[in-house]
Amino acid sequence: MALTFARLKLRVLRNGFRGRPGKVILFVIGLLSALFYGVLAALFFLIPFVSNAPDWGAVIPAFAGTVLVLGWILMPLVWFGVDETLEPGRFALLPLPRPTLLRGLLIAALLGVPAFGTLLATSGLAIGAGVAGGPLPALVAAVGVVLGLLLCVVVSRAVTSGFSRALRARRTRDLAAVVLAVLAASLGPIQFLLTSGAQQVGTERLTAFADVLGWTPLAAPYVVGLDAVHGDWAAVAGRLAITVGTVLLLMWWWSSSLESAMVGTSAGGAVRVRAATGAPVARFFGRARLPRTPYGAMVQRELRYWVRDVRRRASLITFAVIGVFLPVVTNLGPSADGNIAAQSVHGGSMVLVGALAGLGIANQFGYDGTAYAMHVVVGVPGRVELRARAVAYSWYIVPLLLALAVLNAALRGDLLLLPAMVGTLFAAYGTGLACATHASVWAAYALPENQNPFAINTGTGVAKSLLAMAAWFAGMVLAVPVLLLVLLGGSVGAALALPVGLAYAAGAIWLGVLTAGDILDHRQPELLAAITPRT
Amino acid sequence: MIPDSAFALQGLVKRFDTKVAVDGVELAVPAGSFFGLLGPNGAGKTTTLSMAVGLLRPDAGRALVLGHDVWRDPVRAKSLIGVMPDGVRLFDRLDGTELLTYQGLLRGMAPDVIDARVTELLDVLALTDAGRTLVIDYSAGMKKKIALACALLHAPRLLVLDEPFEAVDPVSGAAIRDILTRYVAGGGTVIFSSHVLEVVERLCSHVAIMANGRISAVGTLDEVRDGRTLEDAFVAVVGGRVSTGSELSWL
Lengths: 535, 251
Prior knowledge:
The complex is a heterodimer. Chain A has 2 domains: about 1-175 and about 200-265, no CATH class; about 290-530, no CATH class. Helices cover about 75% and strands about 0% of the residues of chain A. Chain A has 20 helices and 2 strands. Chain A has helices spanning about 1-15, 20-50, 60-80, 100-110, 115-135, 135-170, 175-200, 205-215, 220-230, 235-265, 280-285, 295-310, 310-330, 340-360, 365-370, 375-380, 380-410, 420-440, 460-490, 490-530, and strands at about 80-85, 455. A two-stranded parallel ribbon of chain A has the order 1-2. Chains A and B meet through helix 11, helix 12, helix 16 and helix 20 of A and helix 2, helix 3 and helix 4 of B.
């Protein structure tokens, strides 16, 4: 039965590639980079087994393993989404026992580029254990590696399905409530990094820390090989038990959330019909002071959609979390003094986050799906369309960025840094937005028309994310001049950073909208075809 | 210049990979006609209409709306037609009033005109009761009606409707029929695709039958029927198989 699922998944993948050479090429690029980084990481994992400093050894598998598992938890939320090629809902009508279905979906989830890369990377542990301790430790390490992969896959499934349920629970739920909840949830890790980062990091602290990590599910499966080499079988048993227990627990959680995914997403209970009052146009715009033109209408619709569409809301929220998390961590690292290296780290984090903020619209047409046909039928000019979308998105993002800058300046205890920070941040946002606007016209992709905001289609997801990643990178590179002005310009540069940064951003967005808009005028039907899900 | 055909398709071709979906469609829809485009599933009706209104780029051929080429002069051509595509989502996280108002504003209509027409359209189509229910929570029939309202709002000279009677209950169907009949009586032109033959027979002045990406029969309703019922004519043109009654005996 499980084999059937595996074959089905491979078949769906293959059919998706049929007659789409571009998609195949991008998939191969994804595969090759997984291969490259997988081998690189495998060599890295070999270090503790061949190194001459054995007491230092557990640090690498513990930390690298933790990063890997955290990556599997966070990446789907932030970036790639989950591969929902085999969507649970499609099996609802088949007489499949729950365990069979779960097993099948798990097998299908294991067949993918990320899982392959993870397996390749961690296989270095088994090889290393074999080299250092013979066949038995190698076997133990291999068991750990497989369990670790299972843990990674199951945790990403469980977390995304749990998260998406929370987000779509009530269509009308206040955006702020969710943001607060997520922020509260991420306070833990922030505090954790705060306390560990604030103190001077020494080797003995690192090993102690690695010891603790080794007894959490985050790193337990990756440390067993080393234990086996040292002959510490009690530890091996303990860590394996922790891992198996965690996997089972997560499976149970995933299984229970599967239920709601299969029963469907029809709104629970009767919808209360509220009467519409007032003149249609006045009601459409509400209190917004927008021109009563196609441009104003699109801005208003986009403003509504960023709140009403679960996918867009999820994207805004995840950016808010990452945006707070990233610069806070870099700002509170050990290098809080004023040398140029530390300053470039802080400035760099601003550029990173600013460009990332712009990336939110990299698949803005994909969010709309076939509804975009209305704009094609009417023949909306490309420049107007893109300008409206950029303005509406910025309406939500700009206050967020400002708050971020204030938070960071406050955390570093120097509000005089604020103008330079805002300047860098906004310059990067402008260039990032401009690049993402182009990406949205060139590299739009269809999102499946189901309710999971993190679901993406196989192949295209990873492949198009690479293009979005390229847009992000381009956005960062283009913002470097403003960063250099801040870093090298001394007090003059700091004073100029704000006006220059803002002007830079405005110019970048203006240019991006103008050029991408002209392209859009000639690509409307193609764009529509790209964002139409193939059924 | 007043062209005698409101809508003209000349040699439209569309290939998907190796399959030819539409293979040189020629069609002239006379001004003021009520034109039904018939065909079995997969005949290429939706593909043809999509190319005709600018949703899908044809590999060859032209589409003219009142003399304006949809692909060369899209701004002018698109302002003259109202379109209701099939299998396409609406901006369904707006409620009905918002969606219609949005459509009106996109078309660049004056706010007071929008106010008047939106209220009247919702009233006629019995959608006022839905209030602030989002379009995503509408039933299939209500979605069809609101989509039709979107196509009608700017009072176009030509209506292109893809499967307007699919998934519509009899009451809503009657309402849609009344509106379309009145629209044609007022000088407008309608072309719609369907495989509900009785509706076509009751409403249309002209009919075209499509099969395998080509127009197989075209003319006024009586010309195409040629003394038969429309169903017989349809099966004869498309080439349906005749059941002997011996299949599926296990049922």
